[in-house]
Write a structure and sequence with these properties.
This protein is α+β, with helices and mostly antiparallel strands. The chain contains eight helices and 13 strands. The chain binds ligand 2P0.
Length: 315
């Protein structure tokens, strides 16, 4: 388009309270089940996108050029292949994470959601949030949930082309909700989510139980959100994360992300709860733990977990 020189986009990171683990279509990132997340407000990604002369794409992360064979640069280029007006039309991607780098929050979701917004801005498509969610999903499944703030539900859909597979905001505000990141290890994980969930679908003996479990957990979570029942929200999120990690452990070869520090943090949460503190956790495809609590308990949580990084999703 003449005169259009660059596009920009921003998107929040998100943490799933009911998890996505397994696809029915690997090319379109269509999930087996729905999922429901909380977006992390200002923490996320910002992307600036410019067509360039080439001879390749140039991908930058936090002002540093990424090697073209790095995982993120390869995934970004493969995604941009879907949109090049002509072969050999190259882009410069300047991605910035506004998540503290070591905070342990996934950046691929906010990165691809921000990139979808930057493409929409560059080409002036004027896409709806629903259409942007579909577009972002093609880069990374969980990116479908990073187009909105607050609670976001991603519908699994059933159409083979995925046009009914997008995420939408759940109409609810919960200003006192806090998410705390406990960064226990920032080494690269032994196996990425993409490969791990594929392996679980193919080899986990009770993967067939998972869709029913997710359907129940989604219903419980939506009721907890509607009723502002924090204990119910925490209980379903923690149980769903543990069920996902059980699927991972029952995968062949097994996938175990937890480290001794992860188990110690889980036990510390349970001990705090025994003593009456309203504290729950969730975990993703890695060893770090995310705490869920109410703002009124922040001092008590910080006293037990001095290194916690606290996020107020509705601030
Ligand atoms: C989630 N995770 O719901 C789950 C919980 C990890 C554990 O979504 O292959 O990076 O790009 O669709 O989105 C991570 O998976 O995988 C993820 P792809 P993605 O947040």
């Amino acid at each position: 388009m003449p005169g259009v020189t660059h596009g920009v986009g921003r998107a929040p990171a998100n943490i799933a309270l009911v998890k996505y683990w397994g696809k029915r279509d690997e090319e379109l990132n269509l999930p087996v089940t729905g999922s429901l997340s909380i977006s992390l407000g200002r923490l996320g990604s910002a992307v600036e996108l410019k067509p360039t002369g080439g001879p390749t794409d140039a991908v930058w992360l936090n002002s540093a050029p990424l090697p073209l064979n790095s995982a993120f640069a390869k995934r970004a280029s493969a995604y941009l292949d879907l949109f090049r007006p002509t072969p050999g039309h190259w882009y410069e991607v300047q991605a910035r994470n506004t998540v503290p780098t070591a905070a342990g929050f996934a950046s691929s979701a906010s990165g691809f959601a921000a990139l979808a917004r930057a493409l929409d801005d560059l080409y002036g498509w004027g896409l709806s949030t629903r259409e942007l969610s579909i577009l972002a999903r093609l880069g990374s499944g969980s990116a479908a949930r990073s187009l909105e703030h607050g609670f976001v539900e991603w519908q699994a859909g059933s159409e083979p082309d995925g046009m009914d597979c997008f995420a939408e905001r759940v109409a609810a505000e919960w200003p006192a909700l806090r998410v705390g990141a406990l960064v226990l290890c920032s080494d690269e994980k032994p196996i990425g989510s993409r490969e791990g969930m594929k392996r679980s679908v193919e080899t986990c003996g009770f993967y067939r139980e998972w869709p029913g479990r997710v359907a129940e957990d989604l219903a419980l979570l939506k009721r907890a959100i509607a009723e502002k029942d924090f204990a119910a929200l925490g209980a379903v999120a923690e149980a769903n994360a543990l069920a996902m990690h059980a699927l991972m452990a029952a995968t062949r070869p097994p996938i175990v992300y937890a480290l001794p520090e992860t188990v110690a943090a889980m036990r510390a949460v349970w001990a705090a709860r025994e003593e009456g503190l309203g504290l729950w956790f969730t975990m993703d495809a890695g060893p770090n733990v995310k705490l869920l609590f109410d703002a009124q308990d922040e001092a008590a949580v910080r006293a037990r977990f001095p290194a916690v990084q606290v996020v107020a999703p509705f601030a």
